[in-house]
Amino acid sequence: MRYGLIGKNIQYSKSPTIHEFMAKKLNIDLRYDLFDIEESDIPHLFKHLRNYVFKGFNVTIPFKQIVMKHVDVLTSKAKRIKAVNTIYIKDGKIVGDNTDYDGFLGLLKMSKINVENQRIFILGTGGAAKAAYVVLTDLGADVTVVTRNTNNIDPMFQKVITYSKLSSDQVDIYVQATPIGTYPKVTESVLNQSLVAGKTVIELIYNPPITQMMKYASKSYGGANMLILQALRSEEIWFNQKISINNQLIEELKEVIYSE
């Protein structure tokens, strides 16, 4: 069975490692490829999906919102989040789903992070930021989104400010949902140390495991748990089976991801 990740500049992705490891564990014959493509290539890949050359895709930056116009059906989660990261065929139709919600919610639960009534500032406005926003509002957090400019901001975001308006005394927790600081640009941080010192950071980047912004924080959580949990939820959908997710499996997958 052929699956793959659709995105741009994704040669460093660990998704093939996760899915190939799990396929062996579940005794499933799977091939998982990286499709580093242009937007114009999406219909071509989807044609192969309709013809069952592929069984499903994951989607990452910058296509999580773009692919929405190419699918036939959106799940309720994908509609709420207005982004898609998991694609499959059901009843002959291409379905766009979102397992980033499950991944982010799982990260909070595993790390025992209580967000209710916390002042949480999400950095970024892309697909991962949207998933985090929906989870956090569902859990009763006080959420503000921070962006470079407020033009063309999705109306789903109730409170939005620019970086120039950001003051650390307003913040309990940062959710870092931009690609800034991703390998190989590991010394970059979307915020300087003075804004992060003494704060908690939930980082959605997983490579490197400890980003520059995490180093600035007093307490931080990396993005590996979210990566793994959203991937496992995708597999449950694709393979139509429940996967027993526990700390031992998560640690095994982290070892596989970071030992390469």
UniProtKB/TrEMBL annotation:
Read off the lineage from the record: Bacteria, Bacillati, Mycoplasmatota, Mollicutes, Acholeplasmatales
Name of the protein:
Shikimate dehydrogenase
Q: What InterPro entries does the database record attribute to this sequence?
A: Aminoacid_DH-like_N_sf (IPR046346), NAD(P)-bd_dom_sf (IPR036291), Shikimate_DH-bd_N (IPR013708), Shikimate_DH_fam (IPR022893)
Q: Which domain of life is it from?
A: Bacteria
List the GO terms this entry assigns under cellular component, sorted alphabetically. Answer: cytosol
Which pathway does this chain act in?
Answer: Metabolic intermediate biosynthesis; chorismate biosynthesis; chorismate from D-erythrose 4-phosphate and phosphoenolpyruvate: step 4/7
The alphabetized UniProt keywords are: Amino-acid biosynthesis, Aromatic amino acid biosynthesis
Which GO terms of type biological process are on file?
aromatic amino acid family biosynthetic process; chorismate biosynthetic process; shikimate metabolic process
Q: Look up and give the organism this protein is from.
A: Peloplasma aerotolerans
- Gene Ontology MF terms in the entry: NADP binding; shikimate 3-dehydrogenase (NADP+) activity
Q: Which residues form the Shikimate dehydrogenase substrate binding N-terminal domain?
A: 5-87
Which CDD domains does this chain map to?
Answer: NAD_bind_Shikimate_DH
